[in-house]
Amino acid sequence: MLAVSKSISRIGYRFGCKILPLLPKWPGEVAFIKLLNTQLSEELEDGLFDFLDEQILEVTVTDLGIRLRVSKRGDQFVRAPAGVPADSTISANSADFLAIASGREDPDTLFFQRRLSLGGQTEIGLTVKNRLDALDRSRIPQWAQRGLELIAAELAAVVAN
Amino acid sequence: MQLALGPAQYYWQRTDINQFYEQMLSTPLDIVYLGEVVCGKRHQLRAADWLELAQQLAEVSDKQIVLSTLTLLESNADFNWVRKICDNGQLLVEANDLSAVQLLAEAGLPFACGPAVNIYNQHTLAHLMSLGMTRWTVPVEMSARQLGEVLNACDSRPEVEVFAYGHMPLAYSARCFTARHLGLDKDNCDYRCMEYPDGLPLASQEGEELFVINGIQTLSGEPTNLLRHYKQLCELGIDILRLSPQWQQMEQIIDAFDCARRDDLDTELLPPGVDGYWCGRPGLELIARSGTGAPA
Amino acid sequence: MELVCPAGSLPALEAAVDNGADAVYIGFNDETNARNFGGLNFNDKNALRALERIRNRGRKLFVAINTYAKPDSFARWQAAVDRAAGLNADAVILADIGLMGYARERHPELALHLSVQASATSAPALEFYRQQFGIRRAVLPRVLSLKQVQQLAAASKVELEVFGFGSLCIMAEGRCHLSSYVTGESPNQNGVCSPAKTVEWRNAAGGLETRLNGVLIDRFAENENAGYPTLCKGRFIVDGKRQHALEEPTSLNSMALLPELKAAGIQAIKLEGRQRSPAYVAQIVRTWREAIDEVLQRGADFSVKDSWRDTLSKNSEGKQTTLGAYDRPWQ
Hints:
Chain B: Forms a heterodimer with UbiU. Chain B: InterPro entries: Peptidase_U32, RNA/ubiquinone_mod_enzymes, UbiV. Chain B: Pathway: Cofactor biosynthesis; ubiquinone biosynthesis. The complex is a heterotrimer of chains A (161), B (296) and C (331). Chain A has a single domain, classed as SCP2 sterol-binding domain (Nonspecific Lipid-transfer Protein, Chain A). In chain A, 49% of the residues lie in helices and 16% in strands. Chain A has helices at residues 2-19, 29-39, 41-45, 94-101, 107-112, 122-133, 142-160, and strands spanning 57-61, 66-73, 76-79, 88-92, 117-120. Chain A has a five-stranded mixed beta sheet with strand order 3-2-1-4-5. Chain A is globular. Chain B has one domain (2-167, 223-269): TIM Barrel. Helix content of chain B is 29%, strand content 21%. Chain C has 331 residues and is an alpha/beta fold. Chain C has helices spanning 10-18, 44-56, 74-87, 97-106, 123-133, 146-155, 178-183, 187-190, 258-263, 278-298, 306-314; strands at residues 2-6, 23-26, 60-65, 91-94, 112-114, 137-139, 159-167, 171-176, 199-204, 207-212, 215-220, 236-238, 241-243, 251-253, 268-271, 321-322. In chain C, the strands form three sheets. Chain C has an eight-stranded parallel beta barrel with strand order 1-2-3-4-5-6-7-15, surrounded by six helices. The interface between B and C is large, with 69 and 74 residues.
């Protein structure tokens, strides 16, 4: 597991840094939004993400040049239309995003250290953060959680070098 | 409508303090609050000196003289100061924290509550009235609408006083910001806040006047001015308007409010100041820019 | 010495319990609590889950209802007290006198803790709340020096809780209107300091700008650490000098004083940060658990380990900590 995660993160990271910024659009956007809709269906039904209705949140992974633009319509997250400026932006590098996702680091900590930045309407970014913090992590399979933690740890080292 | 001079917030020379209050005797004020409310280290006048001054003023004047207590107590010395004021045996005391409320309630004395005692609703008001509170100066951040709601919900109400003119006390800290600005420890502050009889202005990096530093206290950068809301204050049944002492032009401020209560309101007599809190907005805003009425 | 830990969400509560919290404090998701931020705090469903997890692990649950009740919606604050009592919470943390009267009368069995927002800094002030409402414990404002805390502990008839770590209010809590002066919303009435909807971060020529309702609070150069966009930690002009006139971005850390606090008879240490993530809660709770255990074991021989200091600094505003008012020179 350890070796696998090491190579995935090392090779994947180097490859990603070279290739992704060259693409006009991140190819994973559709799949990612689909994943969000499945994983967060309960929260969506409960109206916990209604604050994103007709709002555009733009997440930028700085080192990989990934730009994810999400909005919400009805009970679904949707891709935000191109050309419309975002209402709220969040950006950090891939290692820091993974550190947050895996529960290694606190977003405020990264923010104080200027590794995570917010733009536009702060309240949207803050509410997203709080909603994601409140998700029940036991719903993510153990192996996936562990893998995420390992990759996050490894990537933190790779990026630091 | 009665006019009150609130307790002085700044640190002035003893001779200046005496002179200032002597001048105030010849103004149309009805009530004068006296006493150190900001810093227990200030020693131009100690508790006994304030008591003496208050008694002198009470003897020669028919104005009501009220003694105000310290707002933020930290040391035993601070508390002893408050105890001396509460034990004065003659004059009404304005409690500015719950220590003073406790002493006065235990002694069975009537008392006033200053704006830094957190009374935000009718239930808190009723509880303190049951303990002897007879006068309430409303927290500076409370709006006219909220005040009306509290008063409408009260079975019996105390005398109600509103902070109507002056730089509003906004915060109290353990730290002395004047000493910090001068690079001094609070323990060795040399009482340098005396060099700033109107406090030390603090502006944003774009030059917007935000606050006034006054030792451990932070005041609003602009004075609140509710002169343009005089009619509404009367309609709400406010009993007393508090005018906060300032080094210069105090008489003009008093006169402007006195004109208003003699049906001769002239809002041009004073700088516009701010009225955001009163209008349910951020405190630094100016909502009623002209005339005598304010948007509801 | 009880370790009282923050939780703004269920995962944070679990992180606190897993890492050694004796008690966890939470709030309901409205303006009845002093961390009234979007997406944070507990609805009834999650509060029940929180209680279940607390009970399973034999810890305590406190509910903070520590803002001042508004005149037109006092019922909302009463309902919050009723909900906490209905949960059978171990205590409610209150600041409003009217609300304490209600809690005492309606739920005589419910333990009352006096919130730091009530700003009780002297023995008679504590005595007021004890005589009137039978408070069991008070949280002390972060304005007292260590010596003053010791004197108060000697005189107090109620348990005392002091702040161990977290974002530092430099003003006496419950007596600061800086936020409402600029934004219209205050900790006292709205449960929020510098509400997010009024905050703007923008990259500009002079660096990263932060504005509150349009008012420039600070500009950060590229290598400077940032803090929360609160007025007390901004950089302003005083007498022609650009400076952190009130305080720099920094967090409070009183760990070095643990032996003295313990000797003074302080019953509980509070960690701040219901607005932070489970990752923060896990790290700081674990660190403080170890430190308190060490103090209980070694008494005055206690010293702060470098690894603890590093963890706490890393999670701090501006990446630095201070003893705050406990230490006279800070004042």
